[in-house]
Structures are given as structure tokens and as C-alpha cells.
Amino acid sequence: MRRGVLATGALLLAVPAYAGTLETRVTSADGKPIPFAVVTATPTGQVSIPAKSGTKAVMVQEGKQFIPFVLPVQIGTAVAFPNKDPFRHQVYSFSPAKAFELKLYSNDEASTVVFDKEGAVALGCNIHDNMLAYVYVVGTPYFANSDANGDTKIAVPAGTYTVRVWHPNQKSGSPDLTDVRVTGNDTLSLTAKVELKRARTQRRPGAVDDNDY
What we know:
By secondary structure, the chain is mainly β. It folds into two domains: 2-46 and 141-193, Sandwich (Immunoglobulin-like), CATH 2.60.40; 56-138, Immunoglobulin-like (Sandwich), CATH 2.60.40.420. 0% of the residues lie in helices and 46% in strands. It contains no helices and 18 strands. The strands form five sheets. It has a five-stranded mixed beta sheet, with no helix packed on it. It has a four-stranded mixed beta sheet with strand order 1-18-2-15, with no helix packed on it. A four-stranded antiparallel beta sheet has the order 14-3-16-17, with no helix packed on it. It starts with a strand and ends in a 20-residue tail after the last strand.
């Protein structure tokens, strides 16, 4: 196992294609784990690659919450928005990467949206103001969402990769990145430190927004 800190580095030559693993721990500057961070590994020099035809993902609405808070998907993925609540929701986004609005629906109905442009898509509900989530659209098949410990694990072919980290609450500026080499049957461990601004999170429903529609 090799370890390193995520930072800009020199390009490395590609090596024969065998399976390897890229492990990344995402933390704040003081070492606290950061969940819901998206780590992507893009082969050096690769252009955006769409998902295979028919690729699907799910963003659930339940308990007046979006689940999960951050959903990473590859470009071209069709995301279903099933409503598990006994009342209606109206999902929308004004984000440049995908602006859309789904009509009021309920009773386990599911509307589907294809995300065809890379970038962050912030989601809201016109009925319940506390609801907030993100679909993060990437141009590589190698990505993962950090868990409660800030950890991700991505299986990749051997080669060189540009590694990036994105979080909805990170401060503006270029994300940390590096060009790293993963060899056959190797596990490369990185630590990525992300500076966060004041968090925007999904609030639990309260007295001002918990009316059923």
C-alpha cells in the first residue's frame, strides 16, 4: 500500500492495465472526516466519457428529505426521483448543469431526469423549503462518495489519474488535484484536505414547513 497527500504533481507514464484500488480519506484542515464528498479519478488526458446506455440511479424523497444528500452520477445517467411520502413533492433545480422542474406527484410515483452535462445540480422542493440535495455529474466512470469516516474506495485499471474532490460546502477555488499512478493489484491511499465554508445542509422538517400537501 502506498500513501500520499492530494496535491498537484507531475504527470506519470501509464503502466499495463491491471486492477488497482484508489483509497482517499477526505478531511477538514483540522483532520475531521468529511462525508458526502465526491472523489473522481480521471485517466490522464481523457475527455468526458458518458455512462453506458441504460445507466440509472435513484434520489429518494422520504420523510420530507432527499436521500442521499449528495448523489454522484456519470454523465448521461437517468436519475429517478421516487416519492415515498404519502403527500406530494415538486422537485426542481435552477443549476446551469441541469435546470428542470417535476410536476407535483405522490403515492410512490417516480419521475426520471437524464443528466447530460457535467457539474453540480442543486435540488429543492417547491412544497417543502427544508429539502436540499445535490446531484454531482462527472465525466469518468471512476468515482465514489465519502462515507461518515470521510473514506472512499475506487477500483481502477492500472494507469495514471487526475484525482479531484468536490463537496457542496467547499470554499470557492480550484479543487485539490494530482496525477497519480496506480499499478496492478496495488492500493494507493491518499488524504485530501478540504476547506469548508459554513455548511448548507438539508434541515429536518419543522413547524414552519411540515404541512402535508
